[in-house]
Amino acid sequence: MAPARSTPARSAGGTSTLRLVPQDPEWLHDFRGTHDLLLAPYHAAWSARRRGVREHLAPPYPAGLEDLKGLDAPAALDAWRNVQRAFPRVLRGRTPRTARDPARRSLLRAPDGGRLVPLHPVLLDEADVKALVRVRRALRAGARARPSLLVTHGTDGSVAVEAVPGPGDYRGTVDRTVAVLGLSPDEDVELLAAALAPAVAGARPHRVDLSEQEHAAYGRFADRLAAAAMTGLFAGDRAVFRSRYRARGTDPLVSAEGRSVG
Q: For the whole model, what pTM was predicted?
C-alpha cells in the first residue's frame, strides 16, 4: 500500500516557510560555492583581523573582496549553515557537479514510471534567507564600486582592458543560490510537498509515484526552478537544465492508467 501523504508542519512562530530544494548537482555546486568560495574564507579573514591577528599572518580575504562593504560575516555564515542544517542528509553530501543524470536511482517517478530529479520539502527560516539576500546585495553594490574590468587609457590614445578580481566574480554563484532558496511557495509547491513528505518523521526513503496532477505541478515548478538556478546565464543553459527534469526511462511495472502496480 502506498505511504500516506502529508505536508511538513510549519513552525508555530510563523518564521519558517516551506520550500522545495532540488537534488541537483548543478545547483548544489553553487550553494556550496557560496560557502566555500565566499562566506567561509571571508569570515576567517574578518575574524582573524577582529582578534588582532597581524595582517601578514591573518588569512587573506577572497580575491577581490578586500574592501567589500556591508557584508555581515558572522550573520551570513550562520545563515548559510542554518539553511544547510535544514536540508535532508542526502543534500549535504558532495555530489560532483559533473554528475550526468541527477535522476539516476531516483525514487520519484512520473505517471509513466519514468524517473524524475528528486525534490525535497524543506522548512527554511525566513531570517536566514533574508541574510543571504543581504549578501547578494553587498556583492552587487561592491561590483558597482569595483568593476571586474579595469580600463586604462594610454597617452597615445590606446585602451587596455584588464580583468581584475572583484565582487562581481562571486555574483553568479550567490545569485543562483539565493534565487532558488527564495522561490516563493505556491499551490504547486504545496501539492508536491504533500506528495513528497514521508508519512513518519525519519522514515526510510520510499518510492513516490506522482499523479497526473502532481506531475503537471512538477513541470511548472521545474520551469521556475530552471529560471532561478540559471540566473545570469544564457537561455541555452536554462534549456539544458530544464531538460533534465523530464522523466527518464519507463518502469515496466506500470498499469495501463500510468500508476505503479509494483
A: 0.84
